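Section 5.1 Outputs to date
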Amino acid sequence: MNPILRKAIEALSQVVNVSTGLAHPLDESRAKELFKALHKQGVPLNPDDVYSVAVENSWAERHAKKLSELAGKIGSGGRVQVKHPREWGEPTVKKIIAELNEI
């Protein structure tokens, strides 16, 4: 599994309410921004990997499935609309890549 993807989902899991998944519009927007930024950086968005890491980070199975489906859609070039931009995705991904390069 790509370590950037793992760290990104861990970061997302810290800022969204994992008990409700992407039900809140801001949480959904953060997830979309994150996956778009990962895709832009060439990080593979494997739905099975996203699901596994989400479950490891206390996401309910149904919410992890929805998250993995969103990742798969964006990873395959599908378009999504970020309704509440937070400017969170790209800075988060850049920070993760920088931290992993230090190791």
